Amino acid sequence: MGYAVTFIGFVLVGNSATIMEDKIKRTLFRLLSTPTYKSSYITGKILGSIFVGIFQFTILILAGRYLFGVRWGRDPLGLILLMGSYIICGTSMGIMLASLVKTIDQAHSIAPVIMMSMAMLGGCFWPIEVVPSYMQTVAKFTPTGLTMKGLTDLIVRGLGFQTVIIPSLSLLVLSLYFLLLEFICSD
């Protein structure tokens, strides 16, 4: 469960490098010299990244279910809502990251550090209950922590759709925050 969250996050946050590549190779500049708006470019990057995240999530869920017999909880709609919100949040974070870094190497270097830190803080590698209370508090504000909370409630505790509403909404609020930061920080 935690590894799925981590590896989906790696791909989504790592997408920031493609935006940097477009900037450095001047593809973005050439694209924006046409009657194309930057918002259209960003929307395209977001939708492409979301598609990749959904594809990766689907493969992981199906492989887990049919190759390893993983039971993904009793509410597939809750799982779809939660992971969809996580995919949107990870995509937004990757877009925001692209506005903060200046080179492809920076994007390639910082994305794994951020993702691994969030995975550890969010309880992707161990139960969040075994870490100190201050780390449990921090986890409540990370995309991975919110996702793991929802997944744990849904899959491990067998709770229903209502348990993922708050984490999903929180992830969507974080997404808006990341996109707002991207808007403020972009050049």
From TrEMBL:
Keyword line: Membrane, Transmembrane, Transmembrane helix
UniProt key word tRNA-binding: no
GO MF annotations, alphabetized: ABC-type transporter activity
Membrane topology of this protein: Multi-pass membrane protein
Domain ABC-2 type transporter transmembrane: residue ranges: 1-153
Gene Ontology CC terms: membrane
Transmembrane segments: 46-68, 80-101, 113-135, 155-180
Protein name: ABC-2 type transporter transmembrane domain-containing protein
The organism of origin for this protein: marine sediment metagenome
Taxonomic lineage: unclassified sequences, metagenomes, ecological metagenomes
